[in-house]
Design a protein that fits this description.
Strand content of chain B: 15-25%
CATH topology of chain B: Rossmann fold
Shape of chain B: globular
Radius of gyration of chain A: 31 Å
Number of strands of chain A: 12
Largest interface: A-B, 25 and 19 residues
Structural class of chain B: alpha/beta
Number of helices of chain A: 10
CATH architecture of chain B: 3-Layer(aba) Sandwich
Helix content of chain B: 40-55%
Oligomer: heterodimer
Distance between the termini of chain A: 54 Å
Chain lengths: 387, 139
């Protein structure tokens, strides 16, 4: 829904003075207001304009207020109905509530009373809508999870089961004997795949609970990156990919959880190596700018189709057909995004299909309060990073 | 047992294909493999399999169902028995679809991991039926 559009209020009252004053007060409060002198005209407008809130006089000639309430509820169950009446009595109030009115405004009322009641009604509507949206999101996530479990967790299990069954039954036949070693290796690989999917899933689940956010240290991302790049030199060389770190001379301090920040960059570097091509390169660059630390991981890999970019950070999403035997779990980027968000940062990607992708992480820079303190922390991290 | 038959397996999981293919080959059949639906339809067109095992939930969801439709459009394969397999199922869909059910008319569903004996027996029975019908049609 467009939040910037003013909410519409429909007023149905046969008393012209009430209509005029309601309109004046509510327009001044920023609502769009439409007033009608009887139930028939009012209901037509309700069906037509789908107002967020309807003010109804209980005592009107023609269609009664109670009937108007019931019909409004039929037309749009999310519309909030508030009853105005000069005959404020317990019975009429109870009847109105039974018919589906949310609140009651006895005549005469002050502008403040009107604003208060209308504001309260709209607030309730927003809460209901938010709850419904939340429910919908949870429902979607649940459905996505079912598909995820079925596909990503079951596929390796099915493959292993099927291998074992054929091995058990035909393991000694001429057809299968030469394949035994290869199949057993595949079984091991597939169980490893299953393990990493489960591990990533658990990481993501623990991030959802944000249990780590209490650990805050000053981390110099230069040393985090240096350590990771050193660790992946072998993997990159195996794939004939040049892995470079381009780091500034001065510290890049960020306040956060060192383990999580390492996971954040780890995922990006692993992807950049995995979805690359022989002879390609990966460049990890860190920069300290006013107010922020910017880390980018650029690869000369296969790139990401434009149509996939909006979904890239979604859980369980994987770009189809990327590289042979790509063993990603589909959870790496969601984890990275989650960590970036938890640290008050953002993650973004630019990609050209066929020529490479650049992932950029922007994190708030840790502002130095006492210089010796941070220098100390920084030195400690530098020391830790030494092999 | 049915004489050596040509069977096509279409599945994006090479490990599933490998084990099932070997099992069927050990029973004396010739197996062709495709790792996506495009290649599967292509192979079906050029090799005319007598039975197709099709994963119906590949990279693109329900991709397999479209491939079945494509294969059925090949006149010689309009009545080829198709065995739909999937690891994703909510209830037990033990459906053998009625002949009047259009393009799904000749399909049977097996859940993964498949019961190898059961699947092989069904494939062989359906192939034998179809061969018999074809012979009867010959003048």
């Amino acid at each position: 829904m467009d939040e910037s559009r003013p909410e519409t209020v429909v007023v149905i009252d046969d008393d012209r003075a009430i209509r005029l004053s309601c309109e004046k007060i509510l327009v001044r409060s920023g609502y769009e207001v439409a007033c009608f002198e009887n139930g028939a005209l009012g209901l037509e407008a309700v069906a037509d304009r789908k107002p967020a809130l309807v003010l109804v006089d209980l005592k009107m000639p023609g269609i009664s207020g109670l009937e108007v309430i019931a019909r409004v509820r039929e037309i749009d169950p999310t519309a909030v109905v508030i009853v105005i009446t000069g005959y404020a009595s317990i019975e009429s109030a109870v009847d109105a509530m039974k018919a589906g009115a949310y609140d009651f405004l006895p005549k005469p009322f002050s502008p403040d009373e009107l604003r208060l009641v209308v504001g309260r009604g709209l607030e309730k509507r927003r809460l209901v809508q938010e709850a419904r949206r939340g429910e919908l999101e949870r429902e979607l996530l649940k459905r996505r999870f079912v598909t995820f479990v079925s596909h990503q967790l079951k596929s390796p299990l099915v493959a292993v089961h099927q291998y074992l069954e054929v091995l058990k039954r035909l393991g000694d036949t001429d057809e299968v004997r030469p394949k035994r070693e290869m199949w057993l290796d595949r079984c091991l690989e597939r169980t490893d795949e299953l393990t990493s999917i489960i591990e990533d899933w658990l990481t993501l689940a623990s991030l959802e609970q944000a249990s780590f956010s209490r650990t805050r240290e000053v981390v110099d991302v230069r040393s985090t990156i240096r350590k990771l790049v050193e660790g992946y030199e072998g993997t990159a060389a195996e794939r004939s990919v040049a892995l470079n770190a381009d780091l500034p001379a001065s510290p890049c301090p960020v306040s956060g959880d060192p383990t999580c920040l390492a996971v954040l960059f780890d995922n990006l570097i692993v992807n950049a190596i995995r979805y690359n091509r022989p002879g390609g390169s990966v460049t990890v660059r860190a920069e300290c700018r006013p107010g922020e630390v910017v880390v980018s991981v650029a690869d000369t890999g296969i790139g990401i189709p434009e149509s996939c970019l909006p979904l890239l950070f979604d859980e369980f999403f994987r770009v189809g057909g990327r590289g042979e035997g790509s063993s990603g779990t589909g959870l790496g980027l969601p984890i990275s995004r989650r960590i970036a968000t938890e640290h008050g940062g953002v993650i973004d990607v630019q990609s050209v299909e066929g020529s490479g992708s650049t992932f950029t992480v922007r994190l708030p820079r840790h502002e130095l309060e006492g210089a010796p303190d941070v220098a100390g922390a920084d030195t400690a991290l530098e020391e830790m990073s030494l092999p | 047992m049915t004489d050596r038959a040509k069977i096509l397996i279409v599945d994006d999981d090479p490990d599933f294909t490998e084990s099932l293919a070997c099992f069927l080959e050990a029973r004396g059949h010739r197996v062709m493999r495709a790792s996506d639906s495009d290649r599967g339809v292509e192979l079906a067109r050029s090799c005319r399999p007598e039975a197709v095992v099709m994963d119906v939930m590949m990279r693109e969801r329900t991709e397999g169902f479209f491939a079945i439709q494509e294969i059925r459009r090949i006149p010689e394969l309009a009545d080829v028995p198709v065995f739909a397999v999937s690891a994703i199922y909510t209830a037990e869909p033990t459906f053998t679809i009625a002949p009047e059910a259009g393009w799904l008319a000749h399909d049977e569903f097996f859940r993964k991991p498949v019961d190898l004996d059961e699947l092989a027996l069904r494939i062989e029975a359906r192939i034998a039926d179809r061969r018999e019908q074809e012979e009867a049609r010959l003048p």
